[in-house]
Amino acid sequence: MLALLANLALVGLTLGSMYALLAVSFGIIFNVTHVFHLAHGATFTLGGYAMYWISTMLGLPFVAALVGGLIAASVFGVLVEVVLYRPLRRLNSPPMILFLSSVGALTVIEGLIGLLFGTQTLTFKSLPLEAVNVGAVTLPSANLAMPLSWIVIAAVVVYMVRTRSGKFLRAVGDSPRVAMALGIPLDMTYILSFALGSALAVLSALLYGWSQGLTPQMGLSAILIGSAGVIIGGRHGVLPGAIVAVVLGTLQAVLVAFVPSGWQEGATFALLLVALLVRPQGIFGYSLPW
Amino acid sequence: MLEVQGLVAGYQRTKIVLRDVSLSFPAGELAVIMGHNGAGKTTLLNAIFGVLQPEQGAVLFKGQEMRGGPEERVRRGISYSMAGQAILPGLTVADNLETASAVFPTDATTRKIRRDSVFDLFPILADRQRQRAGTLSGGQQRMLSIGMALMRGPEVLLLDEPSLGLSPLLVESLYNVIARVRRELGMTIVVVEQSLDPGLLQADKLHILRMGKVVFSGDSAVLFDKQKLWNLL
Amino acid sequence: MVNYVAQILVMVATFAILAGSLNLVLGFAGVFSLVHAAFFGIGAYTAAQLVLHLGVPFPLDLLAAFALTAIVAGALSVPMARLTHEYVIIGTLALQLVLFNVFVNWEGGTGGSYGLFGITRPAIAGVTLTDLPQYAALSVAVGLVCFAVLFWITRSPFGLALKGLREDERLAQSFGKDVNGQRVAAFALGSGLAGVAGMLYARFVGYIDPSSFSIDQSLAAVTILVVGGLANLQGTVLSAIVLETVPQVLRFIPATSNAVPQLQLLFYGVLLTALVRLRPQGLIAERPLIRAGARSKPQSSEAAAAPAVPVPDDPAEAPGEPLLAIRDLAKQFGGLRAVDGLSLTIPAGRVTGIIGPNGAGKTTVFNMITGYLQADAGSITYRGQELVKMPPFRIARLGIARSFQDVRVFGRMTVLENLVLAIQPSESPFTGWAGQAQATERALTVLDEFGLRDQADERVGQLSYAQQKLLVVATLAARGDPFILLDELAAGLDQESVNRFAGLVRKMAAGGRTVCLIEHNLEFVWQTAEIVYVLDQGKLLAQGTPEDIRRDARVAEIYFGGTQAAAHA
């Protein structure tokens, strides 16, 4: 039993690391702009399918696919900000209205992808990575996904703390009013957060697509985990969301030993719901510096 | 140095707060703006700083009209310490100062000099560099906010109700620092206050706003003439 | 052809009910629920199982679907009632995914991913409705009944209360409204009706599986709702007609029939995005529930003159005796001691003023008295009853009313609606009608007295600052609470308004009510208060009559600065 749990924990950490990256990508946008960017799920889906199209359908090398995916996602994210959120903010629209526009964007992308690619699950054929099966979950080999995710997350932390634009992101997220008084350009900072957050989502989509395959609806549960991680973790800084997401992933895998196959997702989300109800202000609050 | 001409400004078109305000702030002077709640003091500062665009009139800095937003102001050399919480609460004191100086590129030496001078003015901040700014007391936050404004090396400093919520003792030491800043750095300073003890702050000029208009503009000595002052307000 | 139309009618009816019931939850109560599809599913599965295994006839299957779904939804919403903003979104999204997971895995209850099949059409008066037009007629009938219920609820005092809690929950609480309870009730009812739609759907298609009850369906319901207009039931019907007909028609075009679900998504998505982006204000253009309209000026009747909250004929306290007692009250925010061991009493039937420089803790004290803030230590007793730890709406029901420092009104509701909501005695959609009618009469009288009668049907958000403040005072006057707390009433007003409001406050006290006010405008305090407390840094510095305070050198010093002190004496 112990060996099984240890194995599952390892798998969970891998899954969780993917989720952590996703949480970081959502968190950058949410912590800075305070918009519940549901359309981030669309960014996730779009990035995944763009990479698929470039690598599997156009037959181009993997690097081209990755770059293409990053560009497509960033452009989409920035577009949503510039075309939807910013004009609505200028009109002092309540958050619910911005959220509704996000729902609209997500729905459009889901429909479009379904039309263009069909609804069956697609897999990245051209990538020579082994996968691991655990219960109902398939994962890319742990050797790759975990360190990759955390290297990226560490890079993001360094970026936020050390660079000028990273400081802008933190300042605007902390107090847009004061950031403005310091002369920080708010509009550009918002665009930066969307570009960066969307690009990070693509990396997560890559790992996800390798292991689970692509469907037009993959964005939604991804978004739930990512956003829940950020909100339960406490929306200050990058790490709290990542940590909660890792815990969620680990939980989801470990539950395989306790819960009949297929129920893990529901059980995980149920636990997530309980956490939300019990401590809505977030577990970490301000205690982590990044 | 700084001038506003015929300013008509407000919020959302229906709420006009400033009705034709013209004032000038010569270089190196310390001016105080007073008035009741709702008279337009903060609106005036917001218009000067570019937070809102006036319906009519202009804001001039060194003779040139400014049409941009806060970024332009800071770039040109005007810094603003807002009323209420004017610091970044989630960041440490050191990070707050870092962020303030990072906005427009400054070389490392200048940054260090400015930071050192901020700590010289406010020794309490030097002791609390790693403390999260949101946990500082009201007075300390105000000090940090002014410190952040100074990191830019501005020529004009705008202060909105710096004494709000501070005990009389703190107010006195704060005003001493303001006077020092003006002396040592030759800065033009505009301070908005609701109430002011003239013995504490040696202002050059006093301007009084009432219902969006300037009802008095002259020597600050009038602060000592209670009767006249209360009639004007 | 007739069958095609009938099929479309059934789907329109089903989704109109789904969207209409969501309107109650989202449009009226302001709860952004993404779990609606799961309740659609619970109703469908309930009806299906009852029909398949017990042969339950219509309308028992409908009633069971409604009841079970409403109960489950109600139970789930109790812990979730205090979630707000993005937490509601995430919470209901998580719930939707959990329930969907149950649908997919619980083979015993839902048939798992294979679903349930062989669900028969209902039989009415011996006739089984296998004919499409017959079932269409039934669907439309059920739809009409559901919408009748929705109209009844939303036009009732309860509907008005829901709008209030959507607009400003804190303000609603200050009028004694149990906002959490109301939210749960609306959520349960709305979800129950979604269950009814589920029953209609299940017995129509005969085969159900989880794919019909996924998050996509929740989003589709949101789209229909938004396109039709939030809190606009007629709009929901029209929207459902258009948004359901288009995809159904697409099914019959060979070129598109394969990709209908994706096309529907695309269509909905584009429509929603375009509408939100191009006419965001238009999304919430709802009509007032109560209008003054062409009513003539009301004659004063006894009912109109009676206050909503009866002032006891025999108040327990004689004027001057302590009504509210604060003992050793303390509140800390981080390192800041906002209130530091404060003790004072408010005497009945008098006007008490609380003054002090900014940051002295005055509003914090008010917020603790009225329950919006929890004290760290100390006690607050009103007529002997301990207020600490009581929720705001209960404190309000004890007879304690307040105004807020930032003028709070139900912005998107009309002046008349604001006042009626504040004074209507009961929210019950069954028994509250008479009370609301009386409240309306009284409200019109009060508006007349305060010179706001002409603005009765205008949205409060359009009024000037001074007029909004006047409405706040009118509301407090109309409610007749024995104890009133006013937070910086005179702020931002010109001298004439200040004098007028001072007169109104004095009049309230003359009528036997107790007023306690926080003020920066000392003129206002000298004009109204009989007793003044001075707070500084969370502690009591001085107390006495206005004359005492004006002469007190310490007060002058903390307030005006040393050398100015002499001037104000």
CATH-defined fold name of chain A: ABC transporter involved in vitamin B12 uptake, BtuC
Structural class of chain C: alpha/beta
Query: Using DSSP, what is the number of strands of chain C?
Result: 14
List the strand order in the largest sheet of chain A: 1-2
CA-CA gap between termini of chain A: 37 Å
Can you count the helices of chain A? 11
Secondary-structure-derived class of chain A: mainly alpha
Round the mean pLDDT of chain A to the nearest integer and report it: 85
Oligomer: heterotrimer
Main beta-sheet annotation of chain C: 6 strands, mixed
How far apart are the termini of chain C?
A: 91 Å
Task: Give the tally of β-strands of chain A.
Answer: 2
**Share of helix of chain A, binned:** over 70%
CATH architecture of chain A: Orthogonal Bundle
User: Number of domains in the coordinates of chain C?
Assistant: 3
Feature tags:
heterotrimer; A: 290 residues; mainly alpha; ABC transporter involved in vitamin B12 uptake, BtuC; two-stranded antiparallel sheet; 2 strands; C: 569 residues; alpha/beta; Rossmann fold; six-stranded mixed sheet; 14 strands; disordered C terminus
Short structural summary:
The complex is a heterotrimer of chains A (290), B (233) and C (569). By secondary structure, chain A is mostly helical.
Q: Would you kindly provide a written description of the structure presented here, covering whatever features stand out?
A:
The complex is a heterotrimer of chains A (290), B (233) and C (569). By secondary structure, chain A is an all-alpha fold. In chain A, 74% of the residues lie in helices and 3% in strands. Chain A has eleven helices and two strands; from the N terminus they run ααααββααααααα. A two-stranded antiparallel ribbon of chain A has the order 1-2. In chain A, helix 10 crosses helix 11. The model of chain A has no long low-confidence stretch (mean pLDDT 85). In chain B, the strands form two sheets. Chain B has a six-stranded mixed β-sheet, sandwiched between helices. Chain B is globular and about 45 Å long. Chain C is 55% helix and 12% strand. Chain C has 23 helices and 14 strands. A six-stranded mixed β-sheet of chain C has the order 10-11-12-7-13-14, sandwiched between helices. A four-stranded antiparallel β-sheet of chain C has the order 6-5-8-9, with helices on one face. Chain C starts with a helix and ends with a helix. Chains in contact: A-B, A-C, B-C. Chains A and B meet through helix 6 and helix 7 of A and helix 2 and helix 3 of B.
